[in-house]
User: What shape does this take?
Amino acid sequence: MRRRTVMERLGAEQRQRSSRRQLTILAVVLLALAVPAAYAYGSTDAPRDNSGLVASLAGHSSHNSAPQPDNGEGADTGAPPTENPGTENPGTENPGTENPGTENPGENPPQNPGETPGNENPGNEGAGNGDPGQQIDANRRGRGRGNGNNGNGNGNNGGGQQNNGLDVLGRDCRNSDLDRHTGFQVAPACVDTAFGEVADEDKSPSLLITESPDRVGVGEAFRLQVSTRNLVRDRFLGAAAGGYYLESSFLNDQGLQRGHFHTACRMLPNANEAPDSAPAPEFFLATQDNRGGAEPDTVTIDVTGMPSAGQAQCTVWAGDGSHRLPMMQRANQTPAVDSVRIDVG
Assistant: This one.
């Protein structure tokens, strides 16, 4: 009985040792298999079968997702592979690479001047729409529309290059505290109309009073002979109708100034000092006769008599379509203006 018990105990111990040996061998085998598999999975150079994932991502090339190992899920079912959102790196797009400072709002516009305030042209608001009553609010003050840079829109008085290195006070009305000019004869105001076109120096307008009397009686009518050159007298916007300083200067197909000319005569209170320019002249006439050109021609102006004795001054000057003296190519050219004095009495 005792011998039997001893034999049974020895058999049980042998079976336990055999079981532990088998478990040890199995653990070694599993470890040997697991280590190479883990290394292969973690290595970027290990071959992978990604054909299913690449085909599925062909229509999503904008994503920056790296190919993922094919685990067989959905490979034969047509189900889309699982994308790992962590593989797309949102940090690859650097929002700081766009420098908003490279866009100069002061310049157009183009921009166009729905525009930013920098490139909005306030002179186009309500101007020239044929309804002066709608221009009042649209041409209010430009206060606050500049940006502390004399209205040049670039923070440094034009940046030198744009203003030829000069300290320019402004090139439009954005930094002016005055009301916008409406096209009527009002002032003080700020005119935002562009200067427009300027003729070549050999086509600049000129004029001359070629004949005038030396003396006339009080109330006596007289004539002036005016010669013009390079002035096509076909453009005139009525100042009383809201066309004053409203239109830019334009040339015709031959490069000649389009416009007209004015004649005014006034009595001089004192021949030894500059007169007050505010009073209206005793005579005024704008001449737009659809004539004139490159060759000189002559126009006769009939002047009504002067109302009192003294000395009268009669002046003629060219004007573009909106009554401004035509611009010239050079600063030392003589403008298209002439004047004579006539004794009255």
In short: DSSP finds two helices and nine strands in the chain.
